[in-house]
Amino acid sequence: MSYDRSAIERALSGTPLSLTLFSEIDSTNSEAKRTALGGGQAPALFLAEAQTAGRGRMGRSFFSPKDTGIYLSLLLKTDASLSDPITATTASAVAVRRAILAVTGISTGIKWVNDLYFRGKKVCGILAESFFLGDERYLIVGVGVNLSTAVFPEELSSVAGSLLSEPTDLRDALAAEIALRLYRMLTQTEPNGFLEDYRANSIVLGKPITYIQNGIFHEGIAEQIDEDGHLLVRHSDGTHALLASGEISLRIQNEGERQ
Predict the structure, then answer these.
(1) CATH 3.30.930.10 applies to domain 5-200
(2) Considering the chain, what is the average pLDDT of its residues?
(3) pTM for this model (two decimals)
(4) Which of 127, 142, 145 is nearest to 58 (CA)?
(5) Interatomic CA distance for residues 186 and 230, integer angstroms
(6) Are 72 and 28 in contact (CB under 8 A)?
(7) What one-character-per-residue DSSP string does 200-229 give?
(8) What is the C-alpha separation between 107 and 81, in angstroms, rounded?
(9) How many C-beta atoms lie closer than 10 Å to residue 59's C-beta?
(10) Torsions phi, psi for 255 (to 5 deg)
(11) Packing angle, helices 85-104 and 171-186, rounded to 10
């Protein structure tokens, strides 16, 4: 079922966002960057029915089948306050969580740094990228939501899930709500306090975790998320590590979840 352009544009009418819809695209994040490099308009929203090369963090792919998910990217010119990818990702996770709750009534948990989980499985991934064009700084935030995807590739079937078990007519409303809340959050018009919300809905804090950094295996307790969205981990010998690198792979012990 195709998106209803008029319904989404009505929902976004209070913002300056332009909307570009695709039946299929390689990646909405890639299209957003191509648009910026080509001198296109920002702020802008790119929304696709399907992606053939959906992108996740650390070079991973994001499974993006037609009609059962929401795949969108927001392109903004931005200042330094939310242009750091970790800060932008943290803020965006809260915005998307709030949108899902508002439209579906479903409460998701946040797995540091960029995933939303429901019933123990990943239902949403977020990819934030920033770059300069001349003196202007741009931010792209991509969001992929498994809304009613029922079948996943074998390698994802144990970790990926969906918000709903059946197709739904909520897709237009949820796509618009996610875009609206992202825009408000990232342009500082959403109410402050997103870090408190992020921490309160974390599924990592207080849990024993393992992580790999620079090829070395570590384990400890996820103790705190600081004001920059970094994760503080306490090791068994009493030492601490502050995790921020995009090259970190993290597991919550005994749950088989991988970021």
Answers:
(1) yes
(2) 90
(3) 0.92
(4) 127
(5) 18
(6) yes
(7) HTBSSTTSEEEEEETTEEEEEEEEEE-TTS
(8) 28
(9) 7
(10) -115, -10
(11) 140
208-258 CATH choice from 3.40.50.1240, 2.30.30.100, 3.30.1330.30, 2.40.30.170: 2.30.30.100
For the segment 180-188, the average pLDDT, to the nearest whole number, is 92
| Side chain identity, residue 212 | I
How far apart CA 115 and CA 137 sit, in angstroms, is 25
Question: What ranges do the domains of the chain cover?
Answer: 5-200, 208-258
The DSSP secondary structure of 82-112, one letter per residue, reads GTSHHHHHHHHHHHHHHHHHHHH-PPPEEET
Residue range 102-126: average pLDDT?
Answer: 95
**Rounded mean pLDDT of 176-188?**
94
Which 3 state secondary structure label does DSSP give 30? helix
Q: Are 94 and 194 in contact (CB under 8 A)?
A: yes
Can 5-200 and 208-258 be said to share one CATH topology?
A: no
CB-based contacts of 149: which residues, under 8 Å, 6+ apart? 63, 65, 68, 69, 160, 162
| Amino acid (one-letter) located at 255 | E
Other C-beta atoms closer than 10 Å to the C-beta of 227 total: 8
Residue 259 is predicted with a pLDDT of 36
Q: Mention every residue, 6+ apart, whose C-beta is less than 8 A from residue 124.
A: 96, 100, 108, 115, 116, 143, 144, 145, 146
